[in-house]
TrEMBL record:
Residue stretches making up the ABC transporter domain: 123-365
Subcellular location, principal: membrane
Biased composition (Acidic residues): 52-61
Keyword Transport: yes
Organism: Camelina sativa
Keywords, comma-separated and alphabetical: ATP-binding, Membrane, Nucleotide-binding, Transmembrane, Transmembrane helix, Transport
Family listed: Belongs to the ABC transporter superfamily. ABCG family. Eye pigment precursor importer (TC 3.A.1.204) subfamily.
Localization in the cell: Membrane
Pfam families, per the entry: ABC2_membrane, ABC_tran
Name used for this protein in its record: ABC transporter G family member 3-like isoform X1
Length: 739
């Protein structure tokens, strides 16, 4: 498998290593295949510096025009029409030239692959500043007066140490800042200040929740159904395009998380699936937060080669990265280097090396450029140097950067502000914002009815495959029911068995509800999936709750009817079909209410431990106030009667089941006298003599089931999970107020 992956990387890397072309300098670009410099004899012990005048071999022009595949109806690539001057730091080294068009996409398996192009869009930001209270120790400014741009067909990386403002800058460009953040400055898309509408861009979080019980193709297809309007065959085609673009053809029919003893996808493939989910919209601009997060070196290289292939199709890629290998670094087109919110450099990757050399920090010959950059600007290294000072004195310098990192950051920042590179960036931003280009349009969205149907069907499919959370839960219910039924079997219908029969119903309802806590992990996973999809407007709180509710009905009804039948006949309740139907429906409503209660508590805590602890406490209180241990009329009025007894669904379920069993029943007392079932149960449990009371209890249970889900809707929509549209609107208002 490793050999296969390395061959795949090598076949694609050969095409893209020499084609790290930039739309900002389409006619002259230093080929990244010559990233390893040709050193002069006798200079191997010296650090690399552009002042050594490396000898670059001439590179012939590469005809990299993309041909339309079969005359298909793909979108055409929109490149920037503005001619960009060559980076001042590289102008003296450019002896070769590259064509402005992206390289051809490699064909797999010898068969002709139809490449559907993507219409990219340019993005530029000017004097962008983001403030958050309490985010920084000495200042609220997380990003400080940042300038930059990105073009179609290129990869622009935002690099820096931890807490340098990388993700905040990326979210500011995408309009994803939290409500507590304020943004100042301007962001232009195709020269216009208008915000990006739905479907025009994609955003991939650092950690994306996937559905492990679905295959890659199924997961992307359901995502396409949620995101796109139109016909089914059109969505199948975009799914196949996304699979092809992210090199997932070999994994398309494999379960993401595995099944039973089968292993799922590795972290690299999972990361590419999360990116492919955004590609089904064919976005003009794709923002990715840490695409190499938790990836090994092989997976990281394959990921970046795949993204390079995606960029060559015309998409504008902007992403953050903490650190990269030399091979990965050579694939970047531009780099935005941040430290503590300050921009230390923006420009082409090779020009960044020249910038460090000019500032007095040339990159050592055997060190990765990204390692060298982070070593120079990461203040955490100062503590390491202080700890290793004695060892350093005995064994030589610990690093090529001997200056204090704070001084190094100031030097690099001052050097960049006074350099021709900064002037070139400002000139390019001015050229991009002189005139407004094509406005991005919304691509439409699937209707609410379609989204509900898709989520319902997806939930049913997931439940049928998640044996750990659903089928094992059903087995546990059957074991519990058999245990209770055998314990209370053979009670008979005499007056002396009333108290024991009441206890059997109480134990069955209470313990079955308590056992439902086993479904907390699955509910937390569903909430995480919703948050991931809602962040990109793939679904809303209402459609999520309705789809989850409809999808859970068959599973809960299966548990209720199987458990009810076993308990009803083994304990020996009244032999009447109508009474049996009510028993099943009552227990089904009880499970439905319990599911809503678990969902609401899971939304509040979003943690397995605290959700489980809270649910156990709530169920214990409900059991104590349900009227079995002490009749409701005898309960203390404050707290136990109001509100515990009236909000306990155990009370209404048990009362309805006992009314179903004893109303209309007659017990003989001696040979002459007889009493009704209502009179027989009065000393053990409080019920109503009205024969319609059991249906009122059923309606109360139904109202509680909807009430808990209404609470979940409020929590998701207005409370703990602010809707993303509000965040986008607030970010847009902050942007307008700063102009």
């Amino acid at each position: 498998m490793v050999v296969k992956r390395m061959e795949e990387i090598q076949s694609q890397s050969d095409l893209y290593r020499s084609s790290s072309s930039s739309a900002s300098s389409p006619t002259s670009r230093v080929p990244s295949s010559h990233f390893f410099y040709v050193r002069k004899p006798g200079s191997l012990r010296q650090p690399i510096s552009f002042e050594d005048s490396p000898e670059w071999e001439d590179t012939p022009d590469v005809d990299s025009r993309m041909e339309d595949g079969g005359g298909g109806g793909g979108d055409s690539i929109n490149y920037a029409t503005t001619t960009t001057p060559i980076s001042p730091s590289l102008s003296k080294m450019n002896s070769g030239s590259m064509a402005s068009s992206p390289p051809p996409v490699p064909e797999g398996g010898g068969a002709a692959v139809v490449v559907r192009k993507i219409a990219g869009a340019s993005i530029a930001w000017k004097d962008l500043t983001v403030t958050m209270k309490g985010k920084r120790k000495y200042s609220d400014k997380v990003v400080k007066s940042s300038n930059g741009y990105a073009f179609p067909g290129t990869m622009t990386v935002i690099m820096g140490p931890a807490k340098s403002g990388k993700s905040t800058l990326l979210r500011a460009l995408a309009g994803r800042l939290p409500p507590s953040a304020k943004m100042y400055g301007e962001v232009f898309v195709n020269g216009s200040k208008s915000h990006m509408p739905y479907g025009s861009y994609g955003f991939v979080e650092r950690e994306t929740q996937l559905i492990g019980s679905l295959t890659v193709r199924e997961f992307l297809y359901y995502s396409a159904l949620l995101q796109l309007p139109g016909f089914l065959f059109q969505k199948r085609s975009v799914v196949e395009d996304a699979i092809q673009a992210m090199s997932l053809s070999d994994y398309a029919n494999k379960l993401i998380g595995g099944h039973c003893y089968m292993k799922g996808l590795r972290s690299g493939e999972r990361r590419r699936v999360s990116i492919a989910r955004e590609l089904v919209m064919r976005p003009h601009i794709l923002f990715i937060d840490e695409p190499l997060y938790h990836l090994d070196s092989v997976s990281a290289l394959l990921m970046m080669v795949t993204l390079k292939k995606l960029a060559s199709m015309g998409c504008t890629l902007v992403f953050t990265i903490y650190q990269s290998s030399t091979e990965v670094f050579g694939l970047f087109d531009r780099i935005c280097l941040l430290s503590n919110g300050n921009t230390l450099f923006f420009g082409e990757t090779l020009a960044c090396l020249q910038h460090f050399s000019n500032a007095g920090f040339p990159c050592p010959i055997m060190q990765s450029p990204s390692d060298h950059f982070l070593r120079a600007i990461n203040t955490d290294f100062d503590r390491i140097i202080a700890m290793c000072k004695n060892w350093q004195d005995d064994n030589g310098d610990f690093s090529a950067v001997n200056m204090d990192t704070t001084v190094a950051i100031r030097t690099l920042e001052a050097t960049y502000k006074s350099s021709a590179d900064a002037d070139s960036v400002e000139a390019m931003i001015s050229n991009l914002t002189e005139r407004e280009g094509t406005l991005l349009k919304s691509k439409g969205q699937a209707g609410a009815a379609t989204s509900v149907a898709v989520l319902t069907w997806r939930s049913l499919l997931v439940m049928s495959r998640e044996w750990e959370y659903y089928w094992l839960r059903l087995i546990l219910y059957m074991i519990l029911t058999l245990s209770i039924s055998t314990l209370y079997s053979g009670l008979g219908h005499s007056l002396s068995s009333v108290a024991t029969r009441v206890a059997a119903v109480f134990v069955f309802v209470s313990f079955a509800s308590l056992l439902g806590i086993a479904g907390i992990p699955s509910l937390l996973k569903e909430i995480k999936i919703y948050r991931s999809e809602a962040s990109n407007h793939h679904s809303g709180a209402f459609v999520f709750l309705l789809g989850q509710f409809l999808g859970s009905i068959p599973f809960l009804f299966l548990m209720s009817i199987s458990s009810s039948l076993v308990f009803y006949f083994m304990v020996g309740l009244r032999d009447d079909f109508s009474l049996l139907v009510y028993f099943v429906l009552n227990f089904f409503m009880c499970l439905l209410v319990n599911e809503g209660l678990m969902l609401s508590i899971a939304c509040i805590w979003r943690d397995v431990y605290w959700s489980t602890l809270t649910l156990v406490s709530v169920h214990v209180i409900m059991m104590l106030s349900s009227g079995h241990f002490r009749i409701r009329n005898a309960l203390p009025k404050p707290v136990w009667t109001y509100p515990f007894a009236y909000i306990s669904f155990h009370t209404y379920s048990i009362e309805g089941l006992l009314e179903n069993e004893y109303l209309g029943e007659v017990f003989a007392v001696g040979e002459v006298r007889s009493i009704s079932g209502y009179q027989a149960i009065q000393g053990n449990y409080q019920i109503s003599p009205d024969t319609n009371s059991k249906w009122r209890n059923m309606l109360v249970l139904l109202a509680m089931a909807f009430g808990y889900r209404l609470l979940v809707y409020v929590l998701l929509r207005f409370g703990l999970n602010k809707n993303v549209s509000g965040r986008l609107l607030l970010s847009h208002k902050n942007n307008n107020s700063s102009r």
